[in-house]
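Consider the tokenized backbone below.
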């Protein structure tokens, strides 16, 4: 009997989607990848281009252009479709138009009998992940947003650069909204098990404003990149592939995703970026960090901003 293979269905082959497909192929994580997009020519072109790279890939991946019916047998549906963030526009400005797009997309997918996991990357990701959960009717653990996985990666990279340490040995989280109200959890940031505060004592010319600047560069990174090249896509694509690997390979990895809170951190009925254990069933468990008073206040504010933005949108849909 043939072994059951993993199938990923990608909805949207724009900058993020095509970068994700390319990174997925390069890492050989799934056996099947179907690309779905309203722009058939673009998606078919991506399929051709990706297939021509198969001789150089680490493992065989079947890649083809399809439609929503292909989601019926998918283990994971990754959504990167939607309106892009324009210069001067915040992620939250996108909420109403993308929520309406998502209602149609999710209802189409669920009509196929899809019973896997949704992974959402489109902004504003926290609100749109809530929308997918709401429209799909799937259990909360099987609807995941990319959350602050990219912000956390940016944070780790910049701290590694500042202290001249490999970013993979930096352990630090950005939590909250993937956007302007996100926050760094300095109280749990460390390098090789040693707190950042101890590292600063051995840093020549250290100034506390340096750490503030690092966080501001993390928070505003998308604006700087969009201003220069029009879109951010490589970093988030790598983050999505990391999440895909954690899911399909049942890793039980801790990643900062947009997860549904049901009492954790004292909050409920909200999708927001927090550390969570991710495996083949989706989100196994949310990791509750012991936040200090300042961090807790900032996190509560992030929840408040998201809920205030969400309320009128879902009342009208």
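A designed sequence for it:
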């Amino acid at each position: 009997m043939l072994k059951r293979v993993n199938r990923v269905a990608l909805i949207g082959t724009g900058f993020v989607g095509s970068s994700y497909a390319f990174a997925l192929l390069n890492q050989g994580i799934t056996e099947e990848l179907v690309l779905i997009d309203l722009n058939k020519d673009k998606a078919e072109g991506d399929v051709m281009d990706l297939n021509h790279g198969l001789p150089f890939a680490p493992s065989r991946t079947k890649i083809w252009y399809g439609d929503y019916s292909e989601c019926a047998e998918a283990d994971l549906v990754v959504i990167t479709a939607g309106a892009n963030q324009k210069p001067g526009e915040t992620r939250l400005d996108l909420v109403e138009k993308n929520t309406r797009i998502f209602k149609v997309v999710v209802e189409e997918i669920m009509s196929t009998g899809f019973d896997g996991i949704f992974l959402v990357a489109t902004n504003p990701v926290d609100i749109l992940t809530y929308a997918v959960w709401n429209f799909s009717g799937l259990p909360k653990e099987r609807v995941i947003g990319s959350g602050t996985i990219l912000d956390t990666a940016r944070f780790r990279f910049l701290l590694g650069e500042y202290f001249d340490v490999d970013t993979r040995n930096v352990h630090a989280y950005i939590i909250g909204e993937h956007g302007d109200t996100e926050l760094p959890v300095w109280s749990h940031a460390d390098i090789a098990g040693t707190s950042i505060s101890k590292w600063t004592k051995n840093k020549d010319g250290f100034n506390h404003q340096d750490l503030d600047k690092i966080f501001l560069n993390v928070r505003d990174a998308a604006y700087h990149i969009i201003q220069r090249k029009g879109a951010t896509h490589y970093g988030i694509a790598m983050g999505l592939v990391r999440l895909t690997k954690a899911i399909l390979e049942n890793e039980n990895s801790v990643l900062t995703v947009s997860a549904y809170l049901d009492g954790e951190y004292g909050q409920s009925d909200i999708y927001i970026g927090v550390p969570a254990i991710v495996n083949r069933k989706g989100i196994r468990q949310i990791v509750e960090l012991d936040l200090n008073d300042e961090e807790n206040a900032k996190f509560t504010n992030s929840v408040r901003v998201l809920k205030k933005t969400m309320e009128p949108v879902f009342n009208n849909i």
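Residues 7-145 form a domain with the Rossmann fold fold (CATH 3.40.50.720).
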